[in-house]
Fold these 4 entries.
Entry 1:
Amino acid sequence: MSTGYQIKEQDKLYFLTLQVTEWVDIFSRQKYRDIIIENLSYCQKNKGLEIYAWVIMSNHIHLLVKSEKED
């Protein structure tokens, strides 16, 4: 469950950081990075996610994103 900020203005550009519980280095394995990349691609094609920049670190992900849709 999120304990941080909530996205209220859906059409704005946001910088997001997603971290792994207890900062486990799960993304040091290629198969887990591939899962993230496949899911981001799915969200672009099917959910209206616009990705401007992203980086996958060993235990967290940074994204610069916004939604094509307002809902």
Entry 2:
Amino acid sequence: MEVINYFTISFPASSRNESFARVVVAAFAAQLDPTLEELNEIKTAVSEAVTNAIIHGYRDRCGEVVIACSLRQDNSLEVIVKDTGTGIDNLEQAREPLYTSRPDLERSGMGFTVMEEFMDSVSIQTQPGQGTSVTMTKRISAGEQGGNGKN
């Protein structure tokens, strides 16, 4: 599907930047006239992906998180969150609800589950020692509901 707008940003993998990431993606997604529920789902999924990159990708160092977003002609949003950190040794295990590689930080282990619940599709590419890329897409219902859920 044809891309109608896009952006790419990068920032230090610091927890103080998680809220920045959610706001930037939400502001960009607003061009598609999402409902408040859709917008909150996008923000939550982005928070989970960015937090995973910060907490799990860069355990002992501060790296960089890159977010690439695109809006598509079919009224969908694609969000890619990348890190060049440790990667995921066992992706199948990492996608299991309640699994966390950081129990020392009292993590819930629900990050991928939340992303998959709130987005239409989630795909993960990872290479141990080289990082992880999470691609999430969401179709916005504005065209079906008349924008912001109003008829």
Entry 3:
Amino acid sequence: MTGRLALLAWLLLSAGCSKPADSKAQAAADARDIAWVEAAQNTAPPATPLTPEAITFADIERNKLFGASCIFLPEAGSKRFVVLAMAEAAYLKLDGDIHLYAADSGSPPLPFDTRSRYVGRDHVIDLQTSGGQGRASGEETVDWPGRLTIRDAHERVVFTAAGTVQCGV
């Protein structure tokens, strides 16, 4: 970035030291140069794909994540889930650590006071179901076909998967 600022400074200084030119042409050239430097500074870094890890019972115990919730199972018939969504927050495991995401109270509701959108410092979690009544999968759980989409701070998709959203107590 320092090199870009130096280039901008050189361009502006050289414009002042050169022979007088057509002021409109010079103004257009200056504006083009400044726009180029600003665009280079505002370019987002490349998106980094995520690989959510399975949240284990040990993670739930360690972090006291008990209660009514919805989970996302990325594989049919699997018991390994990668998102745990509750009324106030959702949890995602990345690189061995549990990350906290705040519920977006303006997002569409899911069962048990959970939400379809959760916001964190670096990512946004969108959890969607097919709607309807769902299918009972246990005494206190209901399953829906669903999709998990995780976006980075620049709104780029860094993970998406179809799977099962299971809600229960």
Entry 4:
Amino acid sequence: MLGSTVYGFENDLTSIVALLQQLGYDVLNSHAGTIKASPKLSNIDNCLRAVRECDLFLGIIRPYFGTGNIGDKNITFEEIKLAAMLKKPCWFLVHHDVDVMRRFLRKLTPKDASLKLLDVVDIGIDRNLDYRSVEIYDYVLQRDVPVANRTGNWVQEFYKPEEYMTFITTQFADTDFVKDILKSREVDHEK
């Protein structure tokens, strides 16, 4: 499954889906129309059902948080959390601007150590550079887990399409590599 980050990224998603299909994968993606959309389910429930159905998950963290927000829930973030909870093999890409924003926000610390930055400063929400994307990035990086205990937290930064295309090709072109990952997952589930 290719995560549901869509708006302002449509052409990129079309290219990524085409590449994965050329490599022999059946790609579940909302923008591509390859997710079964039950009229009885909400958009978020349809997307989460696709996460449950998929064997592999490719998530993309972009500075645009999206319009797929239902209350406090963001479809892309909910997909990522469910894929992690289900221990799906996951790969992640992060846009350069999210990484820059994350490093900048880490430099800003309140003088009172008991406070969090967002308790002191109202950053506001910008559709094109949304600080909430940093929350997704931190989650995928497993920021709250000691470094020595982190696994599956590789997040490949990209700025230009050729950078994410290189990463995707490297990860998915070698089908034996992917099959080995799926086999080891099956063995882990049997334990």
